[in-house]
Queue: 3 jobs
Job 1
Amino acid sequence: MIDCEGLVKIYKSDDVEVVALQGLNLKVEHKEMIAIIGNSGSGKSTLLNILGGLDRPSAGKAIVGEWDLLQINEKERVAYKRNTVGFIWQNNSRNLLPYLTVLENVETAMMVAGKVDSAYAKQLIEWVGLSHRIHNKLVQLSGGEQQRTAIAISLANRPSLLLADEPTGSVDVQTSDQIMNIFRSLNQETGATIVIVTHDLSLARKVDRVVAIRDGMTSSEMIKRSASESEQSARTQEEHEEYAVVDRFGRLQIPEELRQKLGIQNKVKLSVEHAKLMLEVPNTK
Ligand SMILES: Nc1ncnc2c1ncn2[C@@H]1O[C@H](COP(=O)(O)OP(=O)(O)OP(=O)(O)O)[C@@H](O)[C@H]1O
C-alpha cells in the first residue's frame, strides 16, 4: 500500500533550510496497521502530511496504492485526498461542526466527498461506539466522544488509507485505550490500512509493527512476536521484538544508546558465527 524509499523533505523559509526527512524508507502492506514513533522533531508529522497529500515531497520515492506522490499534479492530488485518504488529528476542532449532531457531522463529510449514504453513516457511528449519541450535538459530547466522531468522519469517504497524528494526545488513558481498540476493529471491518503517529510507546505496542523514526530516517522496527515466542517472553512482558533496519544498500543504523554504551565510533569489525552476524568494537587503545 505504501512504498517510500529515500524520501526527502526540505522546508525552505527565507535563507534557512530544514531537512525534515533525509532518505526515509517505509513499506506498509495493504490492510496493515502500524504505529510510527519518534522524538519531537524527528519528522513524524512531515511523513504523515506527505502520505496524506497535504505536503509535497522534495525527492525520493513515495507511492501510495496506484499514486506516485512525487509525480501527481494538483488536480490528481485533490482526487487522491478525496478518495484515498482519511485523516485524524490530535485536535479535531477543524473538521467538527459543534452545533450539528453526530449523524449530521458524518453525513456532511459524505456530502463534501460527493455522496451521502445514511446507512453507512449509521454503521460508522456504531463501529466507533456512539449509536446512543447519534442525535446529540457535538457540544454535548465529551472530548473522547468527539474524537470518536472525528474517526467516523475520517472514514466517510471510504478511504483505503487512514492516517492518524497523535489521535490520543488529548484524552485520558482509558479513552485512548478505547480509541486504539476502535482502530483495530475498523482495520478489520473496513480493511483500511492504518498508520498511527504517537510518541506513546505503550499505545504503539497495541499494533503489529512499530516503526521508529530518528532524525528523519527510519531507524528500527518492533514486530509483534508470534504466539509461541510470546509465551517464552511472557515473563518479560515484552510482546514486540526490536529490529534494526537495513536499507537496500545494506546500510544499518546502530541506535545512539548502543553506540555510546559500547563506545562505537566510526567502524566495527564484522564476522559471521553460527549464522549470526557479529559486530565487534575494535580496540583503539
Ligand atoms: N512548515 C515547516 N517549515 C519549516 N520547518 C518545518 C516545517 N514543518 C516541520 N518543520 C521542521 O521539520 C522537522 C520535523 O518536524 P515534524 O513536525 O515532522 O516532527 P515530529 O516528529 O512530528 O515532531 P512532533 O512530535 O513535535 O510533532 C523539525 O525540525 C521541524 O522544525
Note: The first strand starts at residue 2 and ends at 13.
Job 2
Amino acid sequence: MTLNAGSSSIKFAVYPVNGDHPIAHGQLEKIGSDDAQLTLHGGNHSETRSEGSLDHTTGLRRILSALDGLTQGAAIAAVGHRIVHGGPDIDAPKILDSALLDKLAEYAPLAPLHQPHNLAAVHAAIAAFPEALQVGCFDTAFHRHHPWVNDTFALPRSYYDQGVRRYGFHGLSYDYIIHRLAQIDSHAAHGKTVVAHLGNGASMCAIRDGRSIGSTMGFSALDGLPMGTRSGQIDPGVLLYLMESHGMDAADLTDLLYKKSGLLGLSGLSNDMRTLETAGTDEAEQAIAYFTFRIRRELGAMAAILGGLDSLVFCGGIGEHSARIRAEVCTGMEWLGIALDAAANEAAADIISNGTTTVRVIPTDEEAIIAKAVRGFLAV
Ligand SMILES: Nc1ncnc2c1ncn2[C@@H]1O[C@H](COP(=O)(O)OP(=O)(O)O)[C@@H](O)[C@H]1O
Ligand SMILES: CC(=O)OP(=O)(O)O
Ligand SMILES: [Mg+2]
C-alpha cells in the first residue's frame, strides 16, 4: 500500500507485491474545503463521492475502510509513505522504526502542512497493519546532493551546520518524472531539464543528467513559487516589519504564510485553480498572472544555472490539467527555445512545443516511485 498525504489531498494505491500495476488506487481531494471528493478505482469498480468537510485524519480513516472493501481483505505486506521532510542526512528511502519516527517528528515545524499528516498516516498504518513493513520515502531525498552554493543561505556558517539549508521538496515526483523521461527519450533524460510540479503545493526543479541541482523550494515548502495558500518567495524584511509594526508572532506568521497567502490570499476567493480559472474577477485573474509570472521568472533562473535548457516538463494537478496555465508560462519564452503548439497544448499531448526546447506534459506518479522503493525492501 502507498499513502501520499499532500497539503490538500491524500493519494493512495495498493499493488501486488511483485507487480507495478495497482489493484486499487484513488485520491481524496480538496481536503480543507467543504466539498472533499473521494475517487476510488479497483477491479471493475470506479466511483467519485462527496465526503463533505473533513480533515486529513478522518480522510485517512475513510480511505483505509474504502480500500478494505476494494482489496477484499488482501494481506498488506508493506506500507510505503510519502514523508515530506527527511532532514539533512536522508538521501534514500528508509524503514520507519521508532527512533527514525521520533527524529522525523522534530521536522514537523519545518513542514507544518505535511509532516504531521505524513506521520499520522504512519501511525494509523502501524495500527491497521501491525505486521506490515513501514517504509518512508522522502521528498527531500532527491535534492540532497545540490552544489553547496544551492544548499546554503548567506548566514553565519554555524546555521548551515545546524541544518538551516535549502532542502527542496516534491522529490518523489521529480524522481518519477526523470525515470519516465528516460523511458520516453533517454537522450533528453541526460540533458538539461526543468520540471514544473504545479499542484496545491508548487515547485520547480533544475535537473542535469538525472540529478537535481536546484529547487525553487528551500528550507521549507514555503519558498519559491506562490501556491494554493502559501506565499512563495518573500522578502524577509516583510516578516520583520509584520512582527515589529503589526505585533505578529511566529504562530501568526505561520498561519499567514502557509494558510492565507498565495492564490487564496491574492484572489480573496480560493486556493483551487479550477475555481480561479472560471471566476472571472479581476482579483482571480491577478492571482493567476502572479502565479505564471513567478514560474517564468524561475524558469529563466533555472535555465541560467543549468547553462541552457533541453526539456521543460509540466506535472502536478495544475501542470497536467490546465492548458491555460501552461500557455501563459510558455508565452514570451521563445528566447529559451520554447514555441508553444497551441493545439497540442489544448490536447495535453506528450510534446507541446515546436521549438528547440522540448516541452512535455507528463502525469506524475508519486505512488509508483514509493511502490518501487518498497519492493526494494521486500526484495522481490
Ligand atoms: N482541470 C483542471 N484545471 C485547472 N486546475 C486543475 C485541474 N484539475 C486539478 N487542478 C488543480 O490542481 C491543484 C491540486 O493539485 P494536486 O497536485 O492534486 O495537489 P496536492 O499539492 O495537494 O498534491 C488544485 O489547484 C486544482 O485546482
Ligand atoms: C511539498 C508540497 O508542497 O507538497 P504538496 O504539493 O503535496 O502540498
Ligand atoms: Mg502533491
Note: The chain has 15 helices and 13 strands.
Job 3
Amino acid sequence: MTLAVTDLSVTGRLRDVTVALPRGGITAICGPNGAGKSTLISVLAGLLAPDGGEVSLGDLPLADLTPRARAQRIGYLPQSAEIAWDVSVRNLVALGRLPHRDRGEDAIAHAIAACSLEDFAMRPVSTLSGGEKARALLARVLAGKPEWILADEPLAALDLAHQLAMLRVLRTEADAGRGVVLVLHDLALAMNHADLVLVLDEGHLVADAEPLQALDRAVVNRVWGIDAEWTGEPGHRALVISG
Ligand SMILES: Nc1ncnc2c1ncn2[C@@H]1O[C@H](COP(=O)(O)OP(=O)(O)OP(=O)(O)O)[C@@H](O)[C@H]1O
C-alpha cells in the first residue's frame, strides 16, 4: 500500500509534486534549507492540508481517515518536537499507544530496547541530553507500530554511533514491511541507507530515484551549488567536495 501525493501544491512552499512512496523500504527526502522537505512530510503525515492536489494512502484519500485511524497508521516525528510534560521516558514512549487505546506493554518495551533507552526509562525527560531525547521521541513513534514512520531530521542530534544504530532500527522496521520516510540533510546517509531518494529544490521535486541516480554529481551541483563526487563502495560512499 503506497503513500502518494498527486499534483500537490502548498502555496509558496511546494509546487506540483507527484510521487508514490513504497512500503518496505527507506525513502530519504533531501534538499537545501527552505526547499519544502518539512512541508512535504507534514502533508504526508496528514497534518498540513495542501492547497491543491491529493494525498492518498492506498485507495483512500488521506483526508477521509479519522485523526485516530490516521495516527494508528502513520507515526510522525517533527523536526523539533517539544515535550509538553516532564514525564518519565517510559511514559513518554507509552504515549505512542494513545491512538490504539491499549496498554501495549510489549510494543513499549520493544521500542525502549530498540532505542537503547533501558537505562533512562524512569528518568524525567527534562534530564535527558538532546540526543537521548531524540531517541526517546523516536521510541514513542515506534511504540505505536504504525505502517508508516515519517521523521523530520531524526538523526540530526545523534552522535555517529547512535545515528547508525537508529538507521539499523529503521531498516528493521522497513524490512518488517513498514514505510520509513526520513528528511535527511546528510547526503551520505541518504546515499548509503535509503532505497529511494527524493530531492526537492525551491518547492519542486527534481529527483525521485535510487540514491546513486537521485544524488548524482549533476543534481548535487545544480541543487546545492557544490561540485562534488562520490567515492567508495555501495553502502560506504562518501561525498568528496572538489570545488
Ligand atoms: N507556516 C508557514 N507559512 C509560510 N511559509 C512557510 C511556513 N513554513 C515554512 N514556510 C516556508 O516554506 C518554505 C519551505 O519550508 P520547509 O520548512 O518545508 O523547508 P525545509 O526544506 O524543511 O527547510 P530546512 O532544511 O531549513 O528545515 C520555506 O521558504 C519556508 O520559509
Note: The radius of gyration is 18 Å.
